[in-house]
Fold:
Amino acid sequence: MQPDIEIYLLSCPTERIIRWLEQDFSVIDMHKPSDIVTKLHLEHNGEVIPVTILEKAAGKRFTSIWFDSDKTPWENDTECSKCAFEALECEVRCNYQGWQEDGQEDPDLWWHINAEGEGPFIWRL
Structure:
């Protein structure tokens, strides 16, 4: 299991992302420290999960969702991406190799899911 989960959504409004999260999580609190950042504390199976939604995280069109916990319902970024794509029907990207202790992963190798399918690709942020 990864220590955290982070995915990137293409052209998906924060309000829509929050509605998706509310389907599987209870929102304990939410605040907007800036125009492009929304911070939440979600509850899932008795665990509190801090989440940061950052608009314009990768260029102007991608929004990052960072689950700062290993207590999410997903084993890794790819599982979360698949769930997000099914619910939101917008392109989703995540780190292909996930987090590894030895740090040998290629930082440019990503996984993407969109209407044409899914697979690995090179994304230079």
